[in-house]
Write a structure and sequence with these properties.
It is a single chain. Helices cover about 35% and strands about 30% of the residues. The chain is α+β, with helices and mostly antiparallel strands. The strands form 5 sheets. The protein has a 5-stranded antiparallel beta sheet with strand order 5-4-7-2-10. Strands 8, 9, 11 and 12 form a 4-stranded antiparallel beta sheet that branches. β4 and β5 form a beta hairpin. About 5% of the residues have low confidence.
């Protein structure tokens, strides 16, 4: 460094700073500018990359003269600074998947990364020291609702009376494509200040709102009640069927016994004569009385069968 050369060292003070505005007091005409590695200095309309070597400059190359004070803006030496922005894309009426006849409100929320693509435009737009938190707050205040409204409008185009909340969730990818297709207001406004939205980073979800939560709880309670009642009904039907089967089995057993008795009776009376010496026939007197219906043996004086109740 010569006697008439001013040495100036600049660099970002924190990794959380996107743009750092500082002042350089020019004391001499000849300047040796040192820019810290990882930083870029934007001063006098020119940018100087971080380097271990000095930039040998005249004062007027920094936008001033000796004894002037010039603004110097510092920003990171990288193009992939991103900020996550959360947005609200409105409430939408959908059919309830549990009960399609019910129309309820669901909220769509999401997040997306905003990338800094042009620091010089960012400097021009804000002209101050800007941290990631500052930029996030600025976007939330001025641009988040604009983005949410555009996404909400795109959602409205795909909803029909039959669309359920599950259908809506499945179509959110289609909505995202529509938002980033063609000329969109939010994209255009952000690009003017050196920012762009990252389509691949977008994530959206369908959430319930308070009143919908209450309705879904009631619907699920009713569905569960019917399921339990149906289960109990199935248990009753099974018990009834079991008892009926037992009764049918017992009745069949009685009928089988009666059929056996009747068969035995018919065998006894099928031939009332015997052959004597191969020629003469001798009548056989049947002294026992049997029920003609079930074949049960009865007293001679019985007017009704004691087994099946048939009149004799």
């Amino acid at each position: 460094m010569g006697l008439f050369t001013q040495s100036i060292k600049v660099g970002l003070s924190s990794k959380d700073v996107l743009v750092e505005k500082t002042e350089i007091k020019l004391k001499k005409s000849d300047i040796d500018l040192y820019v810290k590695s990882g930083s870029v200095a934007f001063v006098g309309g020119m940018k100087y990359q971080g380097s271990p070597n000095a930039y040998h400059l005249d004062a007027d190359m920094l936008g001033g003269n000796r004894k002037d004070v010039v603004d110097c803006y510092l920003y990171p030496d990288k193009m992939f600074n991103t900020i996550l922005i959360k947005f609200f894309a409105g409430q939408h009426t959908c059919a309830l998947s549990y009960l399609p006849a019910a129309k309820l409100k669901f909220a769509v929320v999401g997040s997306i990364e905003v990338m800094v693509t042009d620091y010089e435009l960012l400097i021009e737009a804000f002209d101050k020291t800007l941290t990631k938190a500052d930029l996030q707050a600025e976007i939330n205040t001025k641009y988040r609702q604009m983005l949410g409204d555009e996404i909400s409008d795109a959602i409205k185009k795909i909803i029909t009376p039959e669309t359920t909340e599950n259908d809506l969730h499945a179509k959110l990818g289609e909505v995202a494509k529509d938002v980033f297709k063609g000329s969109r207001k939010t994209l255009g406004v952000l690009s003017k200040i050196g920012l762009t939205l990252q389509p691949n980073s977008i994530a959206m979800h369908v959430n319930t709102v308070d009143e919908t939560d209450e309705t879904i709880t009631k619907v699920l309670d009713i569905i569960n009640k019917y399921a339990i009642d149906d289960l109990e009904g199935q248990k009753d039907e099974k018990e009834y069927a079991r008892r009926q089967a037992e009764q049918d089995k017992a009745l069949q057993h009685e009928l089988d016994l009666a059929r056996i008795n009747r068969s035995q009776f018919e065998e006894k009376v099928v031939d009332t004569t015997l052959t004597t010496n191969g020629n003469a026939k001798a009548p056989i007197n049947i002294t026992d009385k049997y029920c003609p219906n079930c074949g049960a043996k009865l007293p001679k004086s019985a007017a009704f069968c004691s087994v099946c109740g048939t009149k004799q």
